Input
Amino acid sequence: MSLVAGSRPDGTRPPAAVEEPTAGVATATAAAKARARARAPRGTGKAGKVPFGIRLRRDRALILMTLPVIVLLLLFNYVPLLGNIVAFQDYDPYVSSNGVTAIFHSPWVGVEQFSRTLDDPLFWSATKNTLVLFALQLVLFFPVPIALALVINSVIRPRVRAVAQAIMYLPHFFSWVLVVTVFQQIFGGAGIIAQTLQDHGWSGFDLMTNADLFKYLVTAQAVWKDAGWGIIVFLAALSAVSTDLYEAAAMDGAGRWRRMWHVTLPALRPVIALLLVLRVGDALSVGFEQFLLQRDAVGAGASEVLDTYVWNMGIQNGDFSYAAAVGLAKGLIGVCLVLGANKFAHLLGEQGVYKK
Output
């Protein structure tokens, strides 16, 4: 009887060789990678990343659409930053044939222009007015769009809501000249209120020339003009809140105020933190045209802020280097305020302008 090939003398076969598990896994992984490479689009690089050239050709239409915006941003926002070099010079625009080449012929003075601000009482007066107006607008102006957005959001009828939002948003398109004119016709010496009081035996009412109440007047003007713009931001945040949360809260017995406190306001908290950080960073820029238009009515002591101070020193007095130094210092302080406020937002658990 002949033995089968590969069998033992007793006729039994030896056990088959068991392959190494790791070898089988490696083979399967290599096969999977090969299939993935076969399915990947032609031209993709390592780990499925599309090369820059392919992405450039793919998105060329979007790039061409945004190119004009980028050019305008560079031309009007970043190129003028090079002019801050005059803050370290005793700049004289008449030392050369044009103002650009005059930069290269003006003498360097280092930080002398910045040290002048420490001894200038007008600068500190403008800084004080700016900070007082910022604090007042932060307390009286910032919460107004939030409250109005909550009121509009509670209106059930869509038509009434749309009309109310349009009426509140309309003054945002008015220029400051028109806003000041409207307030003059209402609160001025010859306005509606003054004429009504004169008809009843009262006289001497002129809120537009009262220097003591000027900060409240400009805050009211800012609220009337720009509150509608903030309403849109908060209404957009409220539209993202799921109605299931309100229904669940109502089923748990929460009334309208409890639902607003525990559902609506927590949904607005990230947006409020973001806008508050941006508002704090813009603390030293409370306005320019609004105060310049009403400067003669109340005097420089009540209406002078840092923006108008820079304009007066640079444009009216021709002290360009000192005005540039004040403006540069104001910008640097604003950046520090943004970073500090954003760090505080992180401590409160909010994202702020950027993540940690």
Observations:
- The radius of gyration is 34 Å.
